[in-house]
Amino acid sequence: MFNRLVSIVFLLFFSLSSAVLFLLALFIWLCTVLFDRRLTLLHLFTSFWACIYLWAMPAWSVSVEGRDKIRKKERYIVVSNHQSQLDILVAFRLFFHFKWVSKAEVFKLPFIGWNMVLNRYIKIHRGRKESVIQMMAACEEALDRGSSVFFFPEGTRSRTGELRDFKPGAFILAHKQKLPILVIAINGTRDALPKHSLNFHGRHDIRIKVIGEIPYDDFKDLSVEATAAYVREQIRPHIRTGEPT
């Protein structure tokens, strides 16, 4: 009963604050869109917005390791494992500039989705071949503007934490653009907010680790499929597996 009450209060706070914070995001967009080519300031505010919810839930202790490994002026193909809806909030704790690739349904959510549209984050309709083509073109445009692009190449959240096979999109881009891959591992979100659940699940330590970047020269002679497998093996030792607690 207590866990359900905490969830209700948190979701109420999430909903009400999102309305106010979206208005601030819209104001920032209106003031900067003409001269901020990458929408850097808006993304920075969005990162702060996301972190508010992590700070507001005292049962979630979030730590970041390896942030100093990120070269802020570099463009990356960013790749992470995916365990929970919380992964998105947690990744914003890195406070560096990127564009998300996210399923199209999320962009329809009031306030949160509308802010994703303002940020020019990148949508994909699952199961539509033409959407994949559009997504790849949008990623290339974002990269050309100087933004990194963040992927969850498993495509969906893992219930056990065991890594699924990686889809090729991120690695096709890395080869085509000759860009380094920034490798991320996220732990703890699966237990804090399991798949298909919106309930509070007690205290949890959540960790996001920047494993490091893989220079293009390290994988330029690999196929796309081999590159995906290579990156997957870089992440695998850093994540915890098993059924959610």
Structural commentary:
The protein has one domain: Glycerol-3-phosphate (1)-acyltransferase (3-Layer(aba) Sandwich), CATH 3.40.1130. It has helices at residues 2-32, 40-56, 86-91, 112-118, 129-144, 169-177, 189-192, 216-219, 224-235, and strands spanning 60-65, 77-80, 98-103, 122-124, 148-151, 181-187, 204-214. The mean pLDDT is 89. Helices cover 43% and strands 17% of the residues. It is of the alpha/beta class and 245 residues long. Helix 1 (2-32) packs antiparallel against helix 2 (40-56), helix 1 runs parallel beside helix 4 (112-118) and helix 6 packs across helix 9. The chain has a seven-stranded mixed sheet, sandwiched between helices. Helix 4 links the parallel strand 3 and strand 4 (122-124). The protein has nine helices and seven strands, in the order ααββαβαβαβαβαβαα.
Descriptors:
245 residues, alpha/beta, Glycerol-3-phosphate (1)-acyltransferase, 43% helix, globular
* Structural domain tally: 1
Work out the helicity level.
40-55%
* Discrete helix count: 9
The geometry reads as globular
Overall pLDDT level: 89
Tally of strands: 7
The third-level CATH topology is: Glycerol-3-phosphate (1)-acyltransferase
Low-confidence region ranges: none
Instruction: Estimate what percentage of residues fall within beta strands.
Output: 15-25%
Q: What is the C-alpha radius of gyration, as a whole number of Å?
A: 18 Å
Across the major sheet, the strand order is: 1-7-6-2-5-3-4
